[in-house]
Amino acid sequence: MNYHGGAAHTQARAIEDRLTGVPGIDTVHERIAAWRLDPDLQQAGGHVHAMLLGLRRLDTINIAYGAAAGDGALEEVAARIGHFAEEELDGPWVLARAGGGTFVLVANEACSRERWQLVAEQLADAITRPIAVPTGILRLSPRVALMRALTGESLESMLDRLSQALDAAHEQSGNLLCWARGEVTPPGRSAAQLEADLLGAIDRDEIEVLFQPQFSLADDALSGAEALARWNHPQLGRIGAGALFAIAERADHVAPLSRHIARKAMETAVTWPAPLRLSINVTPADLAFGSYARHMLDLVRESGFPPRRLTLEVTEQALIGDVALAAQVMAEFSAQGIRIALDDFGAGFCNFRYLKVLPLHYLKLDRAMVEGIATDSRDLAVLRGIVAMAKALDLEVIAEGIEDEAQRAAVAREHCAYYQGFLRAQPMKAATFEKLARGI
What we know:
There is one protein chain. By secondary structure, this protein is α/β, with parallel strands linked by helices. The chain has helices at residues 7-20, 25-37, 39-43, 58-65, 67-88, 113-128, 155-171, 191-201, 241-250, 254-269, 284-288, 292-303, 316-319, 323-335, 353-357, 377-392, 405-413, 430-437, and strands at 47-55, 93-99, 102-109, 131-133, 136-138, 142-148, 177-179, 207-216, 222-233, 237-239, 277-282, 310-315, 339-345, 362-365, 396-399, 418-419. Helix 4 (58-65) crosses helix 5 (67-88) and helix 8 packs across helix 9 (241-250). The longest helix is centred in the first third of the chain and has 22 residues, at 67-88. The termini are far apart.
């Protein structure tokens, strides 16, 4: 793969950047240089890690589904990588498009090689999830090259080694990951061992529930929190929700894990002062589980948490399989006073049929829908259109990923109801949220 070229190459790459909304390679140069000069990052023990993700069969997709579908798939992949990095990485990171169907993710992360490989595996899993386009459902097949940069290594050297590794991964049938030359695949826990670890993690109380506060835009008062799961692995350290549920799916352990998280969250939230709400995420595996509604309602009764203060957040990804079944399950919850939110709205294909057939109460905007609203008139116009549609359907809008005051002010002016994001609070432990809730 050639990362250097003349004016034609530069112009082509600029077009690609406008398509996916992610920067070019020059941004990665600048970010790595800044990390290496930052004394705080050096003291934190971070190290530059990188992965190069390449998509296969893009030409076939363009032929079978049309060029618009191929472009849409690239936009969705860029959004998924960015969302994944936001959720799973602790240190600073940068995403860039390296041409065609190839993306590079670089992070200053204090993690082992083993942990970086686990991150790459879960990112690959996230990309392989079905993508809905107007002409059908796409399933992409990514390959990932990964590395831990050598001390002082240039970006050109990193990209060269990653490129060679990615070529090797494409040539090896069935091999999704390949470490760059000069690196050895870490000898730590295999996938089977991680799955075995997870089976006992609940009993060992390694699964922690954090709470992401949510606030009312009318008066900036605390309105509730979203429950987020983290696995505190004794050897690998913190494993985020995305990786945790991917491991659980391989181990056929999603249902017990979801029940554990829901039970723990509601047992914690039952002491919160009214009317604070609790939001719990629903996975595709949950909705596919025949007795999910009955089990969940049993947990609500056992916990004593008021069902009218509970919200279940469902993503489009969870709905692709069987919308009719999802509508039936949600209707059971709604009949008990539980509210339903369509989560990550705007991150996927935004199938408006869901708004017609599902008993929804909230639209929860993905961070991608609010990032540019303070500076871009088109982004603001899209937000206004969504809020107007939600109002016509008697739905309240929750804005996610609010990171600065300008964004908060913009969603308030457009009459969104609630927001969450790092502007006010990051995910926090139960005891910390309890103090926030009681004004201590």
